[in-house]
Design a protein that fits this description.
Shape: globular
Mean pLDDT: 87
Helix content: 40-55%
Strand content: 15-25%
Number of strands: 20
Number of helices: 25
Structural class: alpha+beta
Length: about 725
């Protein structure tokens, strides 16, 4: 902690450098979910607690973190959906765990949270740093350098109220929450595990039942082609009895969902469209190549020409980097089509050999502003003092480190750091590299003056300035209108989900079927950008078998959707799941029928011959454990294991499991002697109940299922 605490803030200079480096992240658009919510509606509620503001805040923080870690300025619909779900899951977990921990007297107060954050910070100087914070530090270091990254983290609260750097603070807050949530989950899990007691009689019974078997096993898939003639019939009464027995555990919906079918009409440019696009590109290039660069840019609506210098690695478009650096400065980039997506043309209008970063020391002189009324100097006083310090430094009457102690607003710690060209204001960086090593440069920032002394710079490398214009290769309006007419005619010709599928098949139209689509989803069975379709399907006035209007999905395809099934929260009605129940029972019956058929075949054949007939193989020397789980039993499920340990030895027999038939020849079995105090048996029981990480998730899911949850986010989130 001492190592972290010794790093002091860089004040105005660091604020500017970090702010500029992170500008791309700050400018990224956020989802509409962060808009002001209506007071008449609730976005989310858990056990009576309204969570609208909490959800909005945490979503914004998580978005900032993902932008930083993934180095993105915006996300597509699916990525946005993932952030929404991550946010919601974390809130659900926090709410139920906080309630449980409070009952146990382990509520986290403000001081405990501050101590937790301090421990996180201290861990960065150890061999076992907090992984959440380490990822943040590494991502930040790529933007501003390792030393500046540590300075930012150690003084993160300073960035909470600054518009340029608030995303940094939000990302940090997200990390703290995730780390704290993991801490709470670990504590609760430990309490749960330590509170479980297994009695001696139960362990004794396990010891008596626990056997090991050595066997040969053959896996037979009931759905394989060898059994296409095996069909199972399920009566309505059988289905109803099964539903009544299992409706609470199998047919209770905890999150409302829809089955949605989508007829897809791809929007592709015609050959005529492609010719028209290329003609426009070449005509514009001819005009561009005979015009003044700034005049053409103004005419195109850009208003200015990018003054940024780029090195080769900065250019991410394939082939363009080598093209720009091969052409002499002043050359035009001839029109070229890229991956049938865009046409490009442009010009390499500038080039220079420039250092990629400079090493500086600073004296910071903040002046009074509306946001910083506590500054020591007025704007005029700060300017005069900056000029005076420049003269003193140039005359060698003092060094910058001494002046920092005497005049800077922040006097402790190291005042040196590297400033990269990428992400820094061009005018500032040009001023810095135009100053010789040892020279002085004064910069006026919005909230103060900074006196820079240039200490060092990286070896200059070749960089280029260029302008590039792009044209999308897309269908024309005429093509789009023709396709819309086809889609509208299709929508008018169908009345329900079944007709959508059958009519589309007749017309050769692709249909994508989505099952159990949640209200916040943006993808339907891997079909992207479907947020509008999902929002429609969850509208209050849309019911089963409704047909949508035609959707234009990001000009990629047109779509007509139908709601095939509606599932609201609660136990489903038999009529709504009757077909699903029959399919489930039919599959189970078929598995039993296949096992009977295989046993009949075994009477006149052997495992090796049947393996060849069924397209499978016999696995020899398989060890099976009565008390083992499916992972320890070569994926033989528990339903079959119980039957296998009742089989006679050296008699191949087919037994059915949940979804598979197992042909087993038990070569021998042995009973394991009980261990002293039934220690091993109790460990087996503990592992069966709590031994795998999936059971921690099961516990959390159970707590969530018992909470009163209102998830109304789908009404507020559009894209």
């Amino acid at each position: 902690m001492a190592a972290i605490g010794s790093i002091r803030k860089h004040g105005v200079a660091l604020m500017i450098i970090i702010g500029l480096a992170m500008l791309a992240f700050i400018l990224g658009d956020l989802s509409q979910v962060t808009r002001t919510f209506s007071n008449k509606n609730t976005v989310a509620r858990i056990d009576g607690t309204k969570l609208d503001n909490i959800y909005s805040k945490q979503y914004e923080e998580n978005t900032a973190l993902m932008k930083l870690l993934q180095k993105k300025t915006s996300f597509d619909e699916n990525e946005t959906y993932q952030i929404h779900e991550m946010t919601w899951r974390n809130i659900l977990q926090e709410q139920v765990l906080d309630k449980q921990l409070a009952k146990l007297g382990l509520a986290y107060n403000d001081q405990m949270i501050e101590d937790f954050k301090a421990d996180m910070m201290a861990s960065l100087s150890t061999q076992q740093p907090n992984q959440y914070l380490m990822q943040f530090a590494q991502a930040l270091a790529e933007q501003v350098g390792p030393e500046n990254a540590m300075a930012v983290i150690s003084n993160i609260e300073d960035y909470a109220n600054n518009d340029q750097t608030r995303d940094l603070y939000n990302a940090y807050q997200s990390i703290v929450r995730f780390a704290l949530s993991a801490e709470k989950s670990n504590r609760y899990s430990a309490l749960v595990q330590n509170s479980v007691y297994f009695s001696d009689p139960l362990a004794k019974k396990l010891a008596a039942d626990n056997k090991m078997a050595l066997a040969s096993v053959m896996f037979v898939n009931p759905q394989g082609p060898a059994f296409n003639n095996v069909t199972a019939e399920v009566s309505d009464n059988e289905a109803k009895d099964f539903f009544n027995t299992h409706k609470k555990d199998l047919f209770t919906v905890y999150e409302r969902n829809r089955d949605i079918d989508v007829a897809v009409f791809p929007i592709n440019p015609t050959p005529e469209d492609l010719q028209a696009i290329e003609k426009e590109v070449r005509e514009d290039f001819a005009k561009f190549s005979t015009s003044d660069l700034l005049a053409y840019s103004t005419e195109k609506g850009n208003g200015s020409v990018d003054s940024t210098y780029y090195k080769s690695e900065d250019i991410t478009l394939d082939v363009l980097d080598s093209l720009i650096f091969k052409l002499p400065v002043g050359s035009y980039i001839e029109p070229f089509a890229y991956e049938n997506q865009k046409w490009y043309f442009g010009k390499v209008y500038g080039g220079a050999s420039r250092p990629d970063s400079v090493f500086v020391a600073t004296v910071e002189l903040p002046f009074k502003t509306a946001q910083n009324t506590g500054a020591k100097y007025s704007k005029k006083e700060a300017r005069l003092l900056a000029d005076s310090l420049k003269n003193v430094l140039l005359s060698n009457q003092a060094n910058i480190f001494q002046l920092r102690k005497d005049f800077s607003a922040n006097t402790a710690g190291d005042s040196t750091f590297w400033i990269p060209e990428r992400g820094t204001i061009t005018a500032l960086y040009n001023g810095l590299i135009g100053t010789p090593n040892g020279g002085i440069y004064v910069y006026k920032a919005p909230n103060g003056y900074i006196v820079f002394q240039l200490l060092n710079r990286t070896v200059p490398i070749e960089k280029r300035q260029f302008v590039l214009y792009d044209y999308d290769i897309v269908a024309s309006e005429a093509t789009l209108n023709n396709l819309k007419s086809q889609a509208n005619q299709f929508a008018a010709s169908i009345n329900n989900a079944e007709e959508l599928t059958s009519t589309a098949a007749k017309k050769g139209i692709q249909v994508v079927q989505g099952n159990n689509i949640l209200s916040m989803a943006s993808v339907i069975n891997q079909l992207p950008n479907c947020r509008d379709i999902v929002s429609w399907a969850f509208s209050d006035d849309v019911k089963k078998d409704d047909i949508s209007d035609v959707f234009n999905v990001e000009r990629m395809f047109l779509a007509v959707a139908a709601v095939r099934n509606v599932r609201e929260i609660g136990t489903q009605k038999f009529k709504d799941v009757k077909d699903d129940v029959k399919d489930m029972l039919a599959a189970q019956k078929k598995t039993e029928m296949v096992a009977e058929q295989v046993n009949k075949a075994l009477a006149s054949s052997n495992m090796q011959a049947l393996a060849q007939q069924y397209g499978t193989q016999v696995i020899d020397s398989v060890y099976l454990s009565f008390a083992g789980d499916i992972y320890q039993n070569r994926n033989v499920d528990g339903k079959a294991i119980g039957k296998i340990f009742s089989l006679p030895t050296n008699k191949p027999t087919a037994v059915n499991g949940q979804n598979m038939v197992y042909v087993v020849n038990v070569l021998g079995t042995n009973n394991n002697a009980a261990t002293p105090g039934y220690m091993m048996e109790k460990n087996i029981l503990r592992n069966a109940l709590l031994g795998r990480e999936r059971n921690e998730i099961t516990i959390i899911n159970y707590l969530i299922s018992k909470a009163k949850v209102l998830d109304n986010r789908g009404r507020f989130y559009q894209k």
